[in-house]
Amino acid sequence: MARILIMDDDPNIHQILSMYLERDGHTVLQALNGTAGLHLEGEADLLIIDWMMPEVSGLQVIEILRGQGCVKPMLLLTARGDEGDKLQGLDAGADDYVVKPFSPREVTARVRALLRRAGIKEEIILGALMVKPQSHQVWLDGQEVQLSKLEFDLLSAFLSTPGMVWTRDRLLGRVWGSDFPEMDRVVDVHVKNLRKKLHDDPENPTFIETVRGVGYRLREQE
To answer: By its UniProt entry, which SUPFAM superfamilies does this protein fall under (predicted)?
Structure first.
């Protein structure tokens, strides 16, 4: 199942779409404007974006992300339904287009189609590390590594955005959930345990690098 970011300035849209998407087993992230959405984009697998938003419009969000090389599926929501507007949205980089008012079932069906089209990686290879997301299995130099669920979720967060810095607060929200108390020490302990299992030296890391005063990131392999 995917992590889906909804960018829309209407709380009612968030409420109804979140309910249907969560029924499908997805995790839902929410942003009430384009600026907030751009900050959260790195944590999502698929984006649902409203065209008319304050600060940064949905169309601008899509253009910015595509300009940065983002290839994630993007579904555009809008009340503008004529052919010219639809073509403008698709030309900007949207993968699909739904006109308001819409059926939540139609949106969830389109999300499923976009996810199928994007495909889910059966395995991720990073140097000597191989990860199978579907089965939660990890191998290092051909030897299977036993990770706890939290350790695997932490590794998955890093793998989703190589080179991007994760603050401790963002890792808490991604791995432990928004209701978890803010405790930087929890993140540090689990990163330490993950590094130990991956034989990753903090002083000369192969995989997880400390960004002092900020957080952690996965090193991009040469």
So the answer is: C-terminal effector domain of the bipartite response regulators, CheY-like
Report the alpha-carbon distance of residue 14 to residue 164 in Å, rounded: 27
Q: How far apart are CA 165 and CA 143, in angstroms?
A: 28
Domain count within the chain? 2
**60 and 145 together in one domain:** no
* Judgement on whether residues 11 and 80 belong to the same structural domain of the protein: yes
Give φ, ψ of 95 to 5 degrees: -90, -25
Domain boundary among 103, 118, 133: 118
Q: Rounded to whole angstroms, what are the CA distances from 182 to 48, 149, 170, 187?
A: 28, 20, 10, 10
The first and second tokens of residue 41, run together, are 């984009």
Q: What is the pLDDT of residues 38-94, one digit of tens each?
A: 988 888 889 999 998 888 999 999 999 888 878 889 999 988 767 777 788 888 888
pLDDT in tens, 86-116: 788 888 888 998 988 889 999 999 998 888 7
pTM over 0.70: no
Residues 6 or more apart whose Cβ sits within 8 Å of residue 117: 73, 95
